[in-house]
UniProtKB/TrEMBL annotation:
It comes from the Eukaryota. It comes from Saccharomyces uvarum. The gene is SUVZ13G2250. Residues 10-203 form the NAD(P)-binding domain. InterPro entries: NAD(P)-bd_dom, NAD(P)-bd_dom_sf. It holds the Pfam family NAD_binding_10. Coiled coil: none annotated. This is NAD(P)-binding domain-containing protein.
Length: 227
């Protein structure tokens, strides 16, 4: 198989940076593309990280402009987020930004699309009363539903609370998810990045699936097989 060409929206984020480095160092992938929103970030990714980079602010870009950025790639990863900076930005980045990128994938003929959503986004009872997170979850849930309605080979990853610890390579099996106390529904960003990499390499196990991602005791290879 020829090396996969992957474009990452939200490349400058904490998950995005880890992912770009993993993709760059894995011979199954061609030089990845960082989609970022300032000229300084473009220079950083090209000159320091050593990957390709393009300036496309998904909030203000048209779908056609996003098509121009991702054309010719095999897969797009959406890991952008407003970071809780106001309801409007949550809607323009996490919701409409994600939907625009999905539309752009369809228009550009990029079938593979991986989205970083949020844990139990589908379950209103879980998040309705989570302090300060209602708008965020409305955006994530609605974006996920639009992605599921697309004809893309999507994978929707739904990580628990994101941590900055070193990756463990271990995940909580889905049939044992409820055994965890909710306070421990967390996952290291490095594990999210490596699971994205694994999903790109194992489409058979991950395409058209929504996958809750929480650290646990199961090695990633076994976790993937169980999906
Ligand atoms: N925090 C949690 O506990 C948690 C839990 C579950 C899921 N998530 C989701 O996981 C994803 C990744 O998290 P993270 O920690 O890596 O987030 P992060 O560090 O805040 O990164 C988000 C990235 O999105 C980029 N972005 C924002 N607006 C953009 C725009 N208009 N155009 C292009 N890029 C834009 C930001 O760019 P700049 O660098 O220029 O600001 C930033 O690099 C997010 O979608 C988040 O909602 C988070």
């Amino acid at each position: 198989m020829s090396p996969l060409k992957v474009a990452v929206v939200g490349a400058n984020g904490k998950v995005g940076r880890l992912l770009l480095t993993q993709l760059k160092n894995n011979s199954s992938f061609s030089t990845p593309l960082a989609i970022v929103r300032t000229q300084e970030q473009v220079a950083h990714f090209k000159n320091i990280v050593g990957v390709d980079a393009v300036l496309t602010d998904i909030e203000n870009a048209s779908v056609n402009e996003i098509v121009d950025a991702i054309k010719g790639y095999d897969a797009v990863v959406f890991s952008a987020g407003a970071g809780g900076k106001g309801v409007e930005r949550i809607f323009t980045v996490d919701l409409d930004g994600c939907i625009k990128v999905a539309e752009a994938c369809e228009n550009a003929g990029v079938k593979r699309f991986i989205v970083v959503s949020a844990f139990k986004a589908e379950d209103r009872d879980f998040w309705w009363n989570l302090k300060g997170l209602r708008s965020y979850y409305i955006a994530k849930r609605s974006a996920d539903r639009e992605v599921r309605r697309s004809n893309l080979d999507y994978t929707i990853l739904q990580p628990g609370s994101l941590e900055l610890n070193e990756g463990t390579g271990l995940f909580q099996p889905l049939d044992k998810l409820e055994e965890k106390a909710s306070a421990f529904y967390s996952v290291n960003r490095e594990d999210v990045a490596s699971f994205i990499t694994q999903s790109l390499l194992h489409p058979d196990a991950t395409v058209r699936k929504s996958i809750p991602l929480v650290n646990g005791n199961e090695p990633v290879e076994k976790f993937i097989q169980s999906l």
